[in-house]
């Protein structure tokens, strides 16, 4: 446990930086919001230390099989930073914020197609939304989708070049997939392929399901994306990040199923893996 603690503390520090970046880039006049952000950052840091500092599995998947969680964190970090920079152009314009906003507007315009998630998001904006606010939402969506697409591409290249998860040696299902029971019944390969396909399908549907849910919650509780720029940053970032995270999980699970299937063929028969909790990579 103590050997893992330094790495867990470094990860916790990076999470705190990610949570605090939007509030540092955007001006805040309400001290309660600042206090809430600091509290969220501390809870997130504590969660990361507990998860990565323990030798036993918790809630974080693929904890011992990089680079999937590193790519996930990188995508969210870049998304939050880019969207916050674009939003900061309205209050504290700078050369960097203008450049990021211009790139976001070009990307948002290019993906604002009929029946696209961005078009659905714009349709569900509340009445009275100004044209400037609508353009900002579209630019933020463009930046978020850019970060997600680049992250998916980097992950696909890395697992191909590194042969993930073969370089990790023995893939411990108990540590890396704590919610997946390989002995629950049914073929492990079939279940991994099925769960991977479900995650990929949810990743496709979530960009369309998310905006109506957010609009319903906003109308029910009288909330608006434009009440606070921090809310806009995090809603757009999570709206784009969660589908990408599901895609990554689906790809990883199907990749793991492929590795098990290849091992079975190599050793002959469907019972090539002796212990389903420790799968040879």
Q: Mind explaining what this structure looks like?
A:
With 281 residues, the chain is mostly helical. The chain is 70% helix and 2% strand. It contains 9 helices and 2 strands; from the N terminus they run H-H-H-H-H-H-E-H-H-H-E. It has a two-stranded antiparallel ribbon with strand order 1-2. Helix 3 (68-88) packs antiparallel against helix 9 and helix 6 (131-162) packs parallel to helix 9 (229-267). The protein is globular, with a radius of gyration of 21 Å.
Overall radius of gyration: 21 Å
Structural class: mainly alpha
Question: How many helices?
Answer: 9
Q: What is the total tally of β strands?
A: 2
Task: Determine the strand fraction and express it as a percent band.
Answer: under 5%
Question: What is the succession of H and E elements?
Answer: HHHHHHEHHHE
Largest sheet: 2 strands, antiparallel
Estimate the mean pLDDT confidence: 86
Low-confidence stretches: 270-278
Helix-residue proportion: over 70%
The rough form would be described as: globular
Straight-line N-to-C gap: 25 Å
User: How are the strands of the largest sheet arranged?
Assistant: 1-2
Brief descriptors of the model:
281 residues; mainly alpha; 9 helices; 2 strands; 70% helix; 2% strand; globular
Question: How would you sum up this structure in a few lines?
Answer:
The protein is mostly helical and 281 residues long.
Protein topology:
Blueprint: H1 5-25, H2 31-53, H3 68-88, H4 95-111, H5 117-123, H6 131-162, E1 170-172, H7 173-176, H8 188-221, H9 229-267, E2 278-280
Antiparallel strand pairs: 1-2
């Amino acid at each position: 446990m103590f050997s893992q603690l330094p790495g867990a503390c470094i990860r916790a520090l990076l999470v705190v930086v990610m949570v605090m970046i939007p509030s540092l880039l955007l001006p805040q006049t309400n001290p309660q919001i600042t206090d809430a952000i600091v509290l969220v950052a501390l809870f997130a840091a504590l969660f990361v230390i507990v998860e990565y500092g323990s030798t036993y599995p918790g809630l974080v998947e693929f904890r011992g099989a990089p680079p999937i969680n590193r790519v996930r964190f990188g995508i969210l970090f870049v998304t939050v930073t880019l969207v916050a920079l674009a939003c900061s152009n309205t209050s504290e314009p700078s050369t960097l914020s203008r450049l990021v906003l211009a790139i976001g507007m070009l990307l948002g315009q290019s993906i604002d197609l009929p029946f696209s998630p961005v078009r659905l998001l714009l349709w569900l904006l509340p009445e009275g939304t100004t044209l400037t606010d609508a353009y900002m939402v579209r630019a933020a969506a463009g930046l978020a989708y850019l970060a997600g697409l680049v992250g998916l591409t980097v992950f696909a290249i890395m697992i191909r070049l590194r042969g993930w998860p073969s370089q990790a040696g023995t893939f411990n299902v108990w540590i890396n997939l704590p919610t997946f029971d390989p002995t629950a019944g049914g073929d492990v390969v079939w279940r991994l392929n099925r769960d991977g396909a479900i995650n990929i399908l949810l990743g496709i549907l979530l960009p369309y399901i998310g905006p109506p849910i957010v609009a319903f919650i906003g109308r029910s509780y009288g909330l608006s994306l434009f009440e606070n720029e921090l809310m806009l940053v995090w809603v757009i970032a999570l709206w784009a990040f969660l589908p990408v995270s599901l895609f990554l999980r689906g790809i990883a699970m199907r990749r793991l199923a492929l590795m098990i299937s290849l091992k079975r063929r190599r050793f002959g028969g469907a019972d090539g893996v002796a212990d389903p909790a420790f799968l040879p990579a």
